[in-house]
Amino acid sequence: MDYASGENELKNWIIAETGFNPDYLGKCEAMMALGNGYLGLRSATEESYVGEVRNLFVAGTFNRFDEYEVTELPNGADITRMDIRINGKRFSLENGKIRKYKRMLNLKTGELTRHIRWVSPRGEELEFVFRRFVSLNNLHCIGMRAEITAMNQDMEVSIESGINGQLTNTGVQHFHEGEKRIFEKKYLQLIQTTTQSKIDFVVNTVHQYRVDGKEVDGEPKMVIDRRKVVLIQDIKLNRGQKLVVEKISNVYTSRDKEYDHGDYSLEVLRKDALFNLKSECKKGYEGLLQESIKKWEEVWEKYSICIDSLQDFDQLAIRFAHYHLVIMTPAHDHRMGIGAKGLSGEGYKGHSFWDTEIYILPFFTYTDPQIARKLLEYRYHTIDGARKKAKENGYEGAMYPWESAWKDDGEVTPVWGAVDIVTGKATKIWSGFIEKHISSDIAFALWQYYMITGDEDFMEKYGYEMLFEIAKFWASCLEWSEEKKEYHINDVIGPDEYKEHVNNNAFTNYMAHWTISKAIDYYHVVKEKKPEVYGRLNVLLGLDEAYRHWISKVDKIYLPQPRQEDLVIPQDDTYLQKEIIDLTEYKNQKHVGSIFRDYNLEQVNNIQVSKQADTLILFYLLENLFTKDIKRANWNYYEPKTLHDSSLSLSIHSILACDLDDLELAYSLFERAARIDLGPNMKSSDHGIHAAALGGIWQGVVCGFGGVRMLNGELRIDPKLPKEWSRLEFPIEWRGNRLHIVVTKDKEKQRLYITRMSNHDNAQAITLEVRGRKYTFKERLMVNL
Ligand code: BGC
C-alpha cells in the first residue's frame, strides 16, 4: 500500500495499491469500498479472481435465512464484474505480464481508479483504466467506466457484463429468484426478493460502448440465465484505438422509506427505478461523478480536520476515517443503524453494537448532530425488542440487544463462534445473553447528545423514555447481597470479552449506577418542568413506582473501589485473583488473537489478561469520578495486561495516555489505532473495515489530542499536541453553535484559538473550561496554554 502518492491538492487524499497480489484481495476490497450510507459496494476488481468477495449491501435490508441462523444483511446482485476477453482469451492479471499497476481511492472525490498496462501471454499489449463511484448525490446510483486501449496490434475485444444475482453471503442464498428483463435491448433489470423478510430489490444497469468517441455498431448478445442477465458485446479494436465502456446502474428496494408503506407495489418500484436510470444515464459517467463530487465537497467543508504533522500519514488517516464514517452511515433513514463493518463486508452480519454509541456517535454528535439524532432514533425504534428481551430474561424495562439489526428483530447475536482449540468445537458466544452494558452505553450516548446539542425535542419524544426504561432494566438486574449489604450485578460480560460470567464488572456497575442516577435526576426535571411528558411516561412506564425503586437502591449499588494498597480497581470480583502469566509474546504479536493459539477461551478466562479496554474506559466516560492517581495506578496495572485484540481498544488507551500526559505513548498508540485498517496486515480487513476503530481515530484526534470533553454538561477543551504535531484544526458543534478550533505549537508554546462560526445577533455567550480555568466568549477566544 502507498499513502504518499497524492500530490499538490491531492496530498494525503489518496490510498493506493501499487502492485497486484491475488492472495490479498480482501484488503483493498474493504479499504477502498465505496458507498453513501444507503448503498455499500465492496471494491472487488472488474475481472474475477478466486477468493474475491463481491458485496453490494443496502442498509437495513436484513433477512433471516432460516431458524438456525440469525438475520443478516444480504449480499445483493453484483454489477461490478466485467469479463473481458482479448482474441477469445480471458483478461486476468494472474497471467501474462503486468507492466504498470496502480489502484487508487481518492478520498476527496469518492472515486476509485485502476491503471494497468498488461501484456497477455500471447503478446497482445493493452492499457486499462477502470473508474467507478457510488453517488453521494443520488443514493441509488453507481457509475463505472472502463477504458481499454489496444497498444501493439489489432485485436478482438469482448465484454461480458450485466447483473449477477448468483452471489451468496458465504454460501447463504438470501433471495428468491425474480424476474429478469432486458428493455429496448439495453436496459437490464433483475428483481430479487429476500426469502424471509420479503424485501424486493430492483437492480438496473445500462451500458454504452464507444471506440475513439464513436458509438459501437452492432448489437450485443443478450443472455438471461439463472439469477443473471448480461450482455456480451464484441468489438474490433485497431492498434492504438481506445474502447470506452460506461456502465450506469441503480438499486432500489421495497425497504426504502419512500416505498415501505401499505400501498407498495413492485410494479411502481420497477418503473421508478428504470425511469431514474434512463434519466440519470443521460448525464454520463462524468456528469454523474461531478454531481457526487459536489456532495463530497460539502462533506469536507463540514468535517475537515487539518493536522500539521511531521508524519503526513496522520492527516491521511483522519481523512480515511471521515470517508468511511460517511459511507457507512445510513444518514438518510432513522430506522437503521451502523454495522460493525459498515457496509464494506459480511463480517458481523451488518449488525450494530455498542461500537455505534461509544465509538462512532461522538463524531456525529460533535459535528453533525442531525445524523447523531437519527442514529439514536434508530435505538428508540428498537425499544420494543429491548423490552421483549428484558421480559424474556426476567427483567423489567429495556434490555438492549447486544447485536441489533432491523428495528423489530430484537437480539440477533449468533450463538456459536470461533473454534475452541481444546475441544475442537465451536465456542459459545455469551454476549447476546449477558453482555448487558450496551444498555447503559446507549443511555450515556443519548445524554451526551442531549448535553452537547441541547435538543429538548429529542429528549421529550424519545430520550427520556429510553433513559427511564434502561434505568428500570438495571434496577431489576440488581441482586441483594445479604452478606455485604449491597446490590450486585452478577453473571455478566464487561467490555473485556475475555472474562465471561463475572460478577460486578466495574464498568458495568458504574455505568448502571450512572444510568439510575441520571434517571432520578431527570425524573425530577420532567415532573417539575414537563408535566405533559411526565404524565405520558408515568402512564406508559409506571414512572413513580420506578422512581421509588431507584431511590431505594441507587446508593446501595456496589461500585468497586480502588484497593488501598495500590489504588487498583478490581475489573470484577475475581480478576485480581487470577493467574498472572508472561504476556510478552502476545503483547508483541503481529496478528490479534494470538493467545488462542495456546489457550482456549475457558483458559483465557482464568488468566489476568484483557481483550480490550475495560475498567479504563470509565476514566474516559466518567472522567471526573476518578483522581489522576487512581487513573495512573489502574493504567499501570491494566495496560500491560491488555492485548488490544479488539479494534475498539487502542484509541481509548491513546486518549487516556493523553489524559495522563504521556504524549509520546499517546501518539504511538494513536498511530497503531490508525493502522488497524491502513496498516501492513493484509488480511485483517477481509471481513470489512473496523467501524468503531475509525470513530476511535476521530476521538483520538479531537477528544485525545484536541482535549474536547463534555463534563457534567459543560464544555472543556484541554489540547495537548504530541511533539510531531505543530497545528491542529477542527470543527465542533456546541449547543447549536459551530466552533472552529485551532491549536498551535511553537517551541513548546501552545495556543488555543476558538472562533464561533455561526453568529446570530442575540447569540448567548459560550462558557468553557481550559486548563482548569473558566472562559466566556461570544465570537473569539485565544488562550495561551
Ligand atoms: C469486541 C466488541 C465489539 C465487537 C464488534 C468484538 O470483538 O470485543 O467490543 O463490540 O467486536 O466490533
UniProtKB/TrEMBL annotation:
<protein>
    <submittedName>
        <fullName>Kojibiose phosphorylase</fullName>
        <ecNumber>2.4.1.230</ecNumber>
    </submittedName>
</protein>
<feature type="binding site">
    <location>
        <begin position="611"/>
        <end position="612"/>
    </location>
    <ligand>
        <name>substrate</name>
    </ligand>
</feature>
<dbReference type="InterPro" id="IPR011013">
    <property type="entry name" value="Gal_mutarotase_sf_dom"/>
</dbReference>
<feature type="domain" description="Glycoside hydrolase family 65 N-terminal">
    <location>
        <begin position="17"/>
        <end position="255"/>
    </location>
</feature>
<feature type="domain" description="Glycoside hydrolase family 65 C-terminal">
    <location>
        <begin position="709"/>
        <end position="776"/>
    </location>
</feature>
<dbReference type="InterPro" id="IPR037018">
    <property type="entry name" value="GH65_N"/>
</dbReference>
<dbReference type="InterPro" id="IPR008928">
    <property type="entry name" value="6-hairpin_glycosidase_sf"/>
</dbReference>
<dbReference type="InterPro" id="IPR017045">
    <property type="entry name" value="Malt_Pase/Glycosyl_Hdrlase"/>
</dbReference>
<dbReference type="Pfam" id="PF03633">
    <property type="entry name" value="Glyco_hydro_65C"/>
</dbReference>
<dbReference type="Pfam" id="PF03636">
    <property type="entry name" value="Glyco_hydro_65N"/>
</dbReference>
<keyword id="KW-0328">Glycosyltransferase</keyword>
<keyword id="KW-0808">Transferase</keyword>
<feature type="binding site">
    <location>
        <begin position="354"/>
        <end position="355"/>
    </location>
    <ligand>
        <name>substrate</name>
    </ligand>
</feature>
<dbReference type="GO" id="GO:0005975">
    <property type="term" value="P:carbohydrate metabolic process"/>
</dbReference>
<feature type="domain" description="Glycoside hydrolase family 65 central catalytic">
    <location>
        <begin position="319"/>
        <end position="699"/>
    </location>
</feature>
<comment type="similarity">
    <text>Belongs to the glycosyl hydrolase 65 family.</text>
</comment>
<feature type="active site" description="Proton donor">
    <location>
        <position position="497"/>
    </location>
</feature>
<dbReference type="InterPro" id="IPR005195">
    <property type="entry name" value="Glyco_hydro_65_M"/>
</dbReference>
<dbReference type="GO" id="GO:0030246">
    <property type="term" value="F:carbohydrate binding"/>
</dbReference>
<dbReference type="InterPro" id="IPR005196">
    <property type="entry name" value="Glyco_hydro_65_N"/>
</dbReference>
<dbReference type="Pfam" id="PF03632">
    <property type="entry name" value="Glyco_hydro_65m"/>
</dbReference>
<dbReference type="GO" id="GO:0033831">
    <property type="term" value="F:kojibiose phosphorylase activity"/>
</dbReference>
<dbReference type="InterPro" id="IPR005194">
    <property type="entry name" value="Glyco_hydro_65_C"/>
</dbReference>
<dbReference type="InterPro" id="IPR012341">
    <property type="entry name" value="6hp_glycosidase-like_sf"/>
</dbReference>
<dbReference type="GO" id="GO:0004553">
    <property type="term" value="F:hydrolase activity, hydrolyzing O-glycosyl compounds"/>
</dbReference>
